[in-house]
Design brief:
This protein is α+β, with helices and mostly antiparallel strands and 449 residues long. It has two domains: 260 residues, 4-Layer Sandwich (Purple Acid Phosphatase, chain A, domain 2), CATH 3.60.21.10; 174 residues, 5'-Nucleotidase, C-terminal domain (5'-nucleotidase,  domain 2, Alpha-Beta Complex). The protein is built from 15 helices and 23 strands. Helix 11 crosses helix 15. The longest helix has 18 residues. It is globular, with a radius of gyration of 24 Å. It starts with a strand and ends with a helix. One of its GO terms (biological process) is nucleotide catabolic process. Keywords: Hydrolase, Nucleotide-binding, Signal. Belongs to the 5'-nucleotidase family. InterPro entries: 5'-Nucleotdase_C (IPR008334), 5'-Nucleotdase_C_sf (IPR036907), 5_nucleotidase/apyrase (IPR006179), Calcineurin-like_PHP (IPR004843), Metallo-depent_PP-like (IPR029052), Pesterase_YunD (IPR011240).
Length: 449
């Protein structure tokens, strides 16, 4: 009989306050004959100054110290970084990146930093096939030079060959729990280690013979899968558990390490000087600047955003990348949406109807790192004396198409259904704080400062 243990993390999102305990667990002793360590994506998140300043390179360096055996990527790696930055994220990684359903445009080539699958072999001769898959956001990935491929088409192509070569197969899935369950019903997979939907499976879940496992988010759990195999390298028992972070002891020095991560990030961010302000830029000022920046970038006269995007004032004096990160830590990008006149009327009516409730409406996820939606901010959309909606001073016609400069955040949050499926152009190479930084720099140049 042979024992194999799989230790796993997912959706850490640069919550480095968890890292000392998580990393200690990953490196801890085990009674299994063989132990593999996997991360299932979204290890990075640019809300943390150390990640933002190094474009995730610092996270990779920390993961190198653990001895991960393989990782896959999530949307925070794939879409939170520019094409160029993702191409260099793993330059110094000492582990393979497994990613079977994303190719690089224009040639549709496998990224140089990733491979579709890998076969590990234990000392006892058991061959472990591992595949990596990530959520295939069709429009967004293609806009930054990557081509996501259908999950089932990818498995249909790869899995039969891998099953022939390996004794059992593990899927590193940054696809979400609903998809994991569907794949368990359709495919001969022994283990699916999940992520993306931040779900916790305390004791795993057995579905159609496939063991599903997942360890929550932000390092609030770590995952452990225990497998026992017979002399023919076939699994005879398998179990999973998600171990709460609170069960892992805090040790002297942990707080110092956490603070050191923060301090180093802030130091690096502060080295990036952006603009000098003679007056405080209040949250309200930043909201107005956002509307103007969106209009100037898009060349449009109409824009929409919300005050909850701005978390603190930008102070008098030299402002750095750290100041802008502190006010706008979100993974949110400029977007131009195209709406018919009727759709635009519906959106503005919905904004007006919800305006009071949105003021303190709590928002989570979809790249947002603040607390509430805040005040609705509009520019270029007004009503005339007859109550007709005006777009840049002209009466909105029902069937005519109109463009609206805004942010992709409003497409993903479940508030404005008219934006969900409308044609849109999203600049994933530019974050909100980078848009504002560029706008303020151009304003300073114009003023001769």
């Amino acid at each position: 009989m042979e024992s194999i243990q799989l230790r796993h993390t997912n959706d850490l999102h640069s919550h480095l306050e968890s890292w000392p305990r998580v990393s200690r667990y990953l490196q801890g002793q085990t009674t299994a004959q063989t132990t593999y360590k996997f991360d299932i994506g979204d290890a990075i998140d640019r809300f943390h100054p150390l990640t933002d300043a190094t474009m995730g390179q610092a996270n990779v360096k920390l993961m190198n110290q653990i001895g991960y055996d393989a990782v896959t990527i999530g949307n925070n790696e794939g879409l939170g970084l520019s094409h160029e930055d993702l191409n260099h994220l793993y330059d110094h990684a000492n582990y393979p990146v497994l990613l079977a359903n994303l190719t690089e445009l224009p040639g549709n080539n496998q990224p140089a930093w990733a491979q579709p699958s890998h076969i590990f072999e234990t000392e006892a001769g058991t061959k472990v096939g591992v595949i990596g898959l990530t959520a295939p956001y069709e429009l967004t990935y293609r806009s930054v030079g990557w081509n996501p491929h259908d999950v089932e088409t990818t498995l249909d192509r790869l899995l039969p060959r891998l099953r022939d070569q390996a004794d059992f197969v593990v899927l590193l899935s940054h696809l979400g729990l609903p998809t994991d369950r569907e794949l368990a019903d359709k495919y001969d997979l022994d283990v699916i280690i999940g992520a993306h939907t931040h779900h916790v499976l305390p004791q795993g879940e057995l579905k159609n013979g496939t063991l599903l496992a997942a360890a929550g988010r932000y390092g609030d759990h770590v995952g452990q899968i225990d497998l026992v195999l017979d002399d023919n390298h076939q699994i005879v028992t398998k179990s999973a558990q998600a171990i709460p972070l609170t069960d892992l002891p805090i040790e002297p020095g942990d707080e110092d390490k956490i603070q050191a991560f923060q301090d180093r990030g802030i130091q690096l961010e502060n080295e990036h000087k952006i603009v000098h302000f003679d007056q405080v830029q209040t949250i309200a000022d930043q909201g107005r600047a956002c509307l103007q920046a969106l209009k100037e970038k898009s060349g449009l006269d109409v824009a929409f955003c919300s005050a909850g995007l701005f978390l603190q004032d930008l102070p008098v004096g030299e402002n750095t990348a750290e100041d802008f990160l502190a006010s706008m830590p979100h993974s949110i990008h400029p977007m131009v949406a195209t709406l018919t006149g009727n759709e635009l009327k519906d959106l503005v009516a919905e904004l007006k109807a919800k305006e009071a409730s949105l003021l303190n409406q709590r928002v989570k996820g979809s790249g947002f790192r603040g607390k509430v939606f805040g005040q609705v901010l509009l520019s270029g959309l007004t009503y005339d004396d007859q109550g007709q909606l005006l777009y840049a001073g002209q009466v909105v016609q029902a069937d005519k198409q109109y463009k609206l400069a805004t942010l992709d955040h409003y497409r993903w949050v479940d508030f404005f259904h008219v934006l969900d499926d409308s044609p849109a152009e999203i600049d994933l190479n530019l974050l909100l704080r980078e848009l504002l930084a560029k706008y303020y720099q151009e304003q300073a140049l114009t003023a001769g400062k």
